[in-house]
Amino acid sequence: MTELGKAGTFLLGDRPVTRLGYGAMQLAGRGVFGPPRDRDEAIAVLREAIASGVDHIDTSDYYGPYVTNQIIREALHPYPESLTIVTKVGATRGPDGSWNPAQSPADLRQAIHDNQRNLGLDAVHVVNMRLMGDVHAPSEASVAEQIGTLAEMGREGLIHHIGISNATRAQIEEAEGIAPIVCVQNHYNLAHRDDDALIDWLAGKGIAYVPFFPLGGFSPLQSATLDQVAARLGHTPMQVALAWLLQRSPNILLIPGTSSRAHLRENLAVAEIDLPADAVAELGAIGG
Known about the structure:
Elements: E1 9-12, E2 15-18, E3 22-23, H1 39-51, E4 56-58, H2 67-76, E5 84-89, E6 91-93, E7 99-101, H3 105-119, E8 124-130, H4 144-155, E9 159-165, H5 169-176, E10 181-187, H6 196-205, E11 208-212, H7 224-233, H8 237-248, H9 261-268, H10 277-284
Parallel strand pairs: 3-4, 4-5, 5-8, 8-9, 9-10, 10-11
Antiparallel strand pairs: 1-2, 6-7
Helix pairs in contact: 1-2, 7-8
C-alpha cells in the first residue's frame, strides 16, 4: 500500500491533512450530472481512499446535484474523526445540467443546509466560496456579501472554516478582512501558471492552495516534454504532473478525482514519487 505520509501534511485551518486527498466530482454521472454509471464502484472508491490513508475529501452539493454528497454519506458515515470534508457553494445546476450562479445570502444559506443534510454533518468542516468569474480570468467583483454570509453562518456554528475559489489576490485580501481564509482553490497546473506568485504569497501566510484542473480538467494536459520525462522516470504523465505540483510548494494540497479504484491507486502512488531536479526544471519550463 502507498505510504501517503510521504506527501507531507499541511494545516487546513486547525485540521492537519495529508497533502494528497481525493476530489469527489467524478463520482457523479457524465458531465458531473445525474447518478454514476456504477454506484457500487463509486462507494468502493471512497472506502478504499479512506482505507489507504486519505483524510481530505473535496466535494460540492452541486455535483450531481446532490449525488456525490449522498454517495459520500452512504459510503463513509459515520465519518472517521480524522476525515476533513471540504465543500463549495455558489452555484446550482439546471434541469439541463447547466451551471448557474447562486451567490445571494439566501442561496448560500440554502446551499449550506443542503450540504449538511446530504453529508450528514451538523457543521461543515470547510466551505469554499466559489466565485463565478471565468476560470481563466477571475473577475475582481467584491466578495464582501458572500464571505459575510458565510462568516455569519460560522458564528452560528454551521461552518468551521472558510475558503475561496476562483479568486484573485485582491478578493482574497478583501475576504480576509471579513473572516480568516484557510484555503484558496484556483485553476493551476503545469501548463496554466498564472497563480505562481499567488501560491508563494499564500505559502508565506500559511494558507493552503488547492489547484483545480490539476491535470487540465475536461481537456487533459498535452505535452511532449511531460510525456518524455514520464517515460524516462517510469511513471505515467499524469502521475508526473501531480508529483510536480506536490514539489512546487509545501502549501499545495492535491485532490485528484476518479471513479475507478485502479485509477485511485495510480493517483495515490504519486505520494512516493520524488522528481529529480533536472525533471523538475524541464517540467517547470512547460508553463514558463
